[in-house]
Amino acid sequence: MAKDTLFEIKELKKYFQVGKDKTLKAVDGINLEIKKGETLGLVGESGCGKTTCGRTILGIYPATDGQVIYKGHDVHKLSGKEVLKFKKDCQVIFQDPYASLDPRMTIGEIIGEGMDVHFDYSEEERHERINNLLRTVGLNAEHAARFPHELSGGQRQRIGIARALAVEPEFIMADEPISALDVSIQAQIVNLLIKLQREMGLTFLFISHDLSMVKHISDRVGVMYLGVMVELASNEKLYGRPLHPYTQALISAIPVADPDMEASRERIKLSGEVPSPINPPAGCRFVNRCAYAMDICHKEIPEYREVEDEHFVACHLYNE
Amino acid sequence: MSKVLEIKNLSVSFHTYAGEVKAVRDVSFELDRKETLAIVGESGCGKTVTAKAILRLLKTPPAEIKKESQILFDGEEVTKMDKKRLLSYRGQDVSMIFQDPMTSLNPTMTVGAQIMEALEIHKKMKKKEAEAEAIRLLKLVNMPNAKERIKQYPHELSGGMRQRVMIAIALSCNPKVLLADEPTTALDVTIQAQIIDLLSELKEEFDTSIILVTHDLGVVANFADRIQVMYAGKIVETGLKEEIFYKPHHPYTWALLNSIPSLDKESKEELYSLGGTPPDLILPLVGCPFASRCDYAMEICREQAPETTILSDNHKVACWLQHPEAPRVERPILSGGANRG
User: Fold this and answer.
1) Going by fewer Cβ within 10 Å, which terminus of chain B is more open, N or C?
2) Can you give the pTM of this predicted structure?
3) Residues of B with CB below 8 A from A217's CB?
């Protein structure tokens, strides 16, 4: 394991049993490394397994198969004490700031709850720390006495961030942290996350379906489709020269705020929707929507491999 | 007469325990036949309330459409329609696609029954006939396996498919005007592109006029003819799509355009973000509503509401910077959004 690797994920699988003989393969064999201090973006359409993948990495869901190695230890085999330490190190910011804060707790209680578990602060220290955190995320100390319903969506998401920071984590998984917010507020939250990363050296896993925001915040980006990783590369490579037909389609579907460019731009149209993960196509999972599908794509699952330096893709088009 | 909708001095208030919230303040605009008008603004700027007022969907009380407001559909006063006329007006003349396809369909009815309901009421169709029509409509909105789908319940469908069902219901009675309230916000980019393409096709086919309510200027660039920017219940700028994107005049429009992340921007560079929050709509507005967040605010902006300046046939802006005595201010050029013209 390289020194700068925080997480090493090997052949990770997460299946859900749905009904008697049906298995939903939400995550089906993912290999991934998360490097210390980077932001790894994870994109894909709804239902592609990106949230499940993130949650399995954090041990929120038990893995069906495969390993998640965090600093040399398998996350799914930690002892009670180690689990507590792991949970302190790895925090989550959730998608919906309306549903992820307890409406009966004040902001101060929400932020302080994690501290009480992991630290032994005196009443004064605790108070001071909560106020500091509120200032860090751009709110005031007076917000501590308020309830979530008194705050706007953007403010609530800042509370979600403060709660994650309260236990001094190393790694934060941000699961669609901005998709419930207005465009102008999204920019504020993304700016805040970038600033915090710079100041505290945090590592982020940023899950989103908004490709332009992911490009902005990430160092490397992985694209998921139906439970598998189809492409992973540095941000410049992935957006500059996407290799997988699915990535190409995704990028061409991003709306551009420029009428002339929109009118002249050619869009790769993806027909149909994502097939059911209960019964995915044999061979390549993208085959039924792919414009370049060949015979082999229907039969064989393409291997996920490094075709260029640090550019991984799973597609038969790039076989030697 | 080419105007299908004329809104004059529309004001909508909500009476709450805390006081009167003036959600829409003296808004006037028109919608031409076959035109697509986009209403753009942040949450709480009154864009959805405007759309719902046009359909008289706001519950009174707490909502109140003020007396001086006029909503004319083909010359007919909507605010004075009786119950019976309203029923035929909704759905047949003007219909609406709601924001959230997850919650705006009835979970206890099959999607077929929900489409047929509109046909049976408005077009007096028999059940068999309505069912055939429902299947035709679902095919029209590119729903795969339409015949089987009509027997399914909303929870069995994906978000994109539910939005297609919503569009099928909205189109079932060939309305002259379609109000689309954030029709793609809850959807993925690829599905969003499909839905926008679908709406464009349907517009051509049925000559429908569309009002698109959204906060996403990216969607608008492709689809709208005219754009209207709202802030704190008022229209601050309106113009043809090209005028808004390439020659915007209001500082708020600049802010909206600049806060869009652009794909050719350096990553991790700070995004433009508008500081502060919109004004509390319970308080009386003095001066320009945007003054507290505006980088160019002058003394007069805080004292007196700006007049509307007419820049071209379609392009109007309400900002004191247009006054001949105001300092000349250019739009700040940032690397985000569309910067040309």
Assistant:
1) N
2) 0.81
3) 267-268
